Protein 1
Amino acid sequence: MGTVFSIDIRSSDLDIGAVDAVVEWWHWVDATFSTYRPSSDINVLGRGEKRIGELPPEVAEVLSLCTVASERTNGYFNACRDGELDPSGLVKGWSIEVASRMLVAAGSTAHCLNGGGDVRVIGQPAPGSAWNVGIADPRSGGVLTVVAGTNLAVATSGSAERGSHIFDPHTGRAVTDPISVTVVGPDLTWADVYATAAVAMGSAAPAWLDGVHGYEGIGLTADGQAWRTAGWWRYLPV
Amino acid sequence: MRRTLIALVTTVTGLIFLLSFKSQGAGPTNRPAALAPTTPGPTSTAAPNASASPSRPSSAPQTATGAVIQTKYGPVQVRVTMTGNRLTDVEAIQLPTGDRRDIQISNYSVPQLRAEALAAQSAHINVISGATYTSDGYAQSLQSALDQLNA
């Protein structure tokens, strides 16, 4: 399964080498954390062939984030499944968040990063405007709604497109309802984690997400109903 | 490992870069250099439809409409505007038809939902979260539009 990443820079103040650095970073993340590559550090660690101290510090950072993620989501975010180490649910959002910081550090004041539908935007795409992020309707591929902002992370998790891949860690069963949850907030690492956890929570998701500080969400249930958290409205385009 | 790099389009100020990660494979890492064959997925079914003029003053905005990319859910097409060598606009002009009629929830008032629906219809969408097929189609149509402008 491949995932398309895109970098859209609207800033004239960027050191252009930073784009190469981001591309290199994403390839490195892919090689280090891919559970599909037997030689990846995450698999080497999972098989017990090396200790965490012998691996790049980012591996420890990701696993530590996974621990916090599990605590913050009452265990619904889980980096282990069937005894296998798999932090994929956090790595994509985290790697895009880090990439966005790399671009800001290199002088970017306006960009949009998209990795397989997880989106991080900074600044204004054109003077005076905000980034408009469409949220896909997984039933039709159309747009369910749009959120807007100049410093925004938007992550969508669900089971509709590539088969159900989110499991309730407490029952081990694949989740089929809700079919999709999108979380919007200030940091893509956490938007991604909360979206994944919210899908795993099933019908408990809206109430839980309502209590998560700084993040809002919209979900689509299997019977076609959409729910939104109380503060969802502040992200709508003006 | 082999990575399929879909595209690199660049100027100093307007830049879009797309790359595709494959989950398996071996070989040298490619530098992003050119349009490469894409992985199985949406296919282009319509000829690109450029409205750009080959010779133009560098300050005049030019637009190009990308190929219609057929995805599992329907056609995706985008239009780009460049001013000089700067990408100034990207607009989705075709997305699969969503059915919003059944989107409702009792907690929210009708005016709020109506405002949201109107916002979704009129907003100028820059990027799409979720629905990988649709966002991949979006990226491919975008690339085709940029190719026409030799961006």
Protein 2
Amino acid sequence: MKVVGEQLQDWAQEQKDDLNKDVFGRSAFNRYYYAAYLITRMNLGELNPIWKTEKHKAMPNTLITTVRKPVIRALEKQVKKDVMTESERSKAVGSLKVATAALSDLLKEAYDLRCVADYEPEELISFDNKLLLLKEYKLDSARKWPSKASAYCKTIRRIWRDAGLV
Amino acid sequence: MFNSEYILSFIDDRLKKFINEVRFRSSDEVILIYVYRGKIAEKVRPGFTSLRQMNNLASRLSQQLSLEVDVIFTIKGDHQGLEDALYQMLKHKFPDAVVSFYMSLADEITVNSWVEISGLTEEIKNKVEDYCSTIFQEADLNLGVIEWIDSVDDLPALPLLLKYLKTNQPIKIEYFEQVLREDFPAVSKRWLNQKLDQCRRKNLIIREKEGIYCLSAKGLSIVPAGAWYTSSDIDRVLALGRKKW
């Protein structure tokens, strides 16, 4: 999916006609969002199969609620049983909260831009030299969504794993 | 159809200043409130709002307008630029090591970072961390959490070590080392000996005469277990099925 987005972005930048730049550019936003969403869904699905079918709009909230809960509970138990120190627990919970919040923010913003790209054709892509922007958001920044989602997922999975949950 | 002015008329003036954009998304009928992460502090104070205040605003608006309201926390364009610039600086400073760099803002001054390094060592970690801290200080920012992606020198945490032991017990240290090394190449016999000794002193594991290790009842009670498919109970059953007796 990311490769498709990159190809669409390259085509958008090569186009001479503004209308063509617009249609290729907004399709690239769409593909970058889907790449980030599918990466997240696949990674969360490996932690709990219920999340394999998580809907677009529910995913950001799931990340900051139900994805955190089992880890927080397991780590508290491990501190009580002296397997982990309080500072180790606090560091792990801090990292989990940071990664889930960052991924939740990314998916919410990317989903909204994807909706603008798909359903609001009157909101045209603008150009600043070689940069393509949708509502002042750079397509170059959207290109990083899949890699960022993957990085945040790695942190979440590592903490789940370290807690002995996977 | 709700326009931005109409939605803003429901929002208190003292909160409007924290809002970057308000819009109605007609495709799924949701009101969106965009707020810069840089305007969020742990507690409300002059010039800053809090997560709780924004979430309360969203639920109040939702009741008043009978629509779903979502708050989207975003970063300013100049922070996106900072991420690109810092990545280039790190690439320049550590050309063979830094693969990628991402950041997110926790609040107005705290930056969390994700750094991917090829051939990660403690020395490079410290150098990169010091370099990032110095640059953030210059920009009046603080380095919050720094996460290392794909670190090959990763070692299992104690709860995970106990889960591996539960799956593979009873097991001799030599075989246990082999099992762990499949997922954690940095595991050494010396490190494993130390960890197992630590667990034994905490009465989490038992070492039998022949040098075979098992979990104690206390150790078993710590390993998370349940009916989900990644649970330690399922792993254990599958491992028993594969075992050649």
